[in-house]
Amino acid sequence: MPTVVQVKLLLLGIMAFSFVWFRCIESKMEFSTAQFVFVLIIFCWTGFVRTGFGFGGAALGLPFMILVAGSPIDWLPIIGLHLLFFSGLSLASALKQVDWRYFKKSLVWILPAKIVGVIGLLNFPPNVMTVIVYSITGFYALTWLFNYSIRSNKNWLDNVLLFLGGYISGTSLTGAPLIVAVYMRKVAKEQLRNTLFVLWFFLVSIKMGAFIAVGVHIDWQYALMLIPAAGVGHYCGLKVHAKLMENDQKFKRWLGGALLIICAIGMTKLFLG
């Protein structure tokens, strides 16, 4: 187990490496030094959430990203590439712990909605997409703040949640909580995280394919440059996954309050800035 000093040195090394790279590249998005430091922290955070909970990296990271700079369509390709990379690493040695039967069954409802959502994403104006992201995130934040769990105990409601989750994941990559609500009931606990990783990998592959097909700008250099920061979070999330699962309600309440503040600031900036 690394010591606190070793972790701090690693973080400083990553910051220095990424900063030098940041100064050497050109990008569609322009950042000040302070903004770039925030971006590094945000991607470390998304990596931590993704492995700590098994979902939510995009849902809990995208609102922070668009508050710093850019629009959802600028960040979603980078988030997508990271999710493909890290979910691939996580699944490489754990594919036997996947509920393939329910994975295939759920795609009947998720996949058509996903495709419709991606079409919407590619055609909505940036400001509309930003409002959608903050609205969805605000809804999730309220459920966490007031300790309300999205649950389903009927098959027809399962299908509705899967369809809505697929559509939302198509438009903004933040449909996870709706899908997870169903998967938690249908998939054994020991298979849940890996099955979700397979699902995210599959769904993001569809979205990335659509981005490439229609010529969406993908900032490959920034995506590569931010992998080390996300990797630190990924590693830390793996280490504390069990503890987070034991205390997830307390953590989610704190997180819900923080996200509501971020959404309020983002919406104010969008309409009054």
Describe it for me?
It is a single chain. By secondary structure, this protein is mainly α. The chain has eleven helices and no strands. The protein has helices spanning 4-24, 33-53, 57-68, 72-91, 100-123, 126-145, 155-172, 176-186, 189-214, 220-246, 248-272. The longest helix is centred in the last third of the chain and has 27 residues, at 220-246. It is globular. The mean pLDDT is 79.
Please give a handful of descriptors for the protein shown.
mainly alpha; 273 residues; 0% strand
Integer average pLDDT: 79
- Topology order in helix (H) and strand (E) letters: HHHHHHHHHHH
Oligomeric category: single chain
Helix-and-strand structural type: mainly alpha
Poorly predicted residue ranges: none
Share in helix: over 70%
Largest sheet: none
Net shape = globular
The tally of domains stands at 1
Indicate the proportion of strand residues: under 5%
Q: Number of helical runs?
A: 11
Could you tell me how far the N terminus lies from the C terminus, measured between alpha carbons in angstroms? 46 Å
The total count of strands amounts to 0
CA radius of gyration is: 18 Å
Secondary structure blueprint with pairings:
Elements: H1 4-24, H2 33-53, H3 57-68, H4 72-91, H5 100-123, H6 126-145, H7 155-172, H8 176-186, H9 189-214, H10 220-246, H11 248-272
